[in-house]
Amino acid sequence: MIIRKSTDLRANLFVIGVNKAGTTWLHGLLNDHPDIFMSKTKELDYFGKEYPKNLEKYHQHFETNRSVRYYGESSTSYFCHPDVAAQIQEYNPEAKIIVMLRDPVDRLLSHFFFSKQLGEISEKVTLEAILNDKGHSFVRDSQYEVTIPKFQEHFGENLFVNRLEIALSNPDKFWTEIQQFLCINEVSLPEGGTDSKNVTGGKGFRNIYRWTVLPIKEKKPDLYRALLDSSFMKFSRKVLISLFGKAEKESFPSGMKERLAQEFKETYRYLESLGLSWQKEMKMESSS
To answer: Domains of the chain, with CATH numbers?
Structure first.
């Protein structure tokens, strides 16, 4: 194993997205590997916003006394920012990039409900309104054929792309592929390694979140970040979701399934070109 000196510190592993595609789960898996240190705070959002300023502050997120091969972080904001691929390459040309994708329609729906949970959009906003807003980030984040080629151009073989559905269908194989990509010692998948770490809560959960956690997030962001990492908050979240349930997909208006299939037709074709097709969307496409 290559031991990196603190004087040579440069983050060299980036999980860049996409939103609601298992990045929290993967962040935890990577951090459990003895050759990897992932930042305690997820979503550092440094590139595309602050880079190249405050590098020293950025590096404080990594414990340089660890005998590891990789210092990494996970920020889904990097996925669709037009400058991030070039910035990370400039910062560290040897960096490894991991992209986790998901069925584009399922990802959009999960993002839609999660944003309601976070209070980013009103409970009254409909899926149809989102789709009618051309260029909306929810739609753009699912158009993988637009974003991934930028990272392919800058990182080539140092880019690993997979899909959440494929990873969960055979998690041991996926974990082995990740370790081989990173050229690190292969260890077994951690116990509970397929458990979801970022489930979207139902409407009752979202109402509680808006009255309790959201004001802290808006007024005291540092305290909010600390709460996210606390065992009490994680336990409380599990209890509330068990009581109020997970978010349910809204019923589709007439013609919505066909519209969604058409909306992401090119995305499905692109996934197939990467060898990442999945039975579900192939059925949708054949029926459209």
So the answer is: 6-200+247-287 (3.40.50.300)
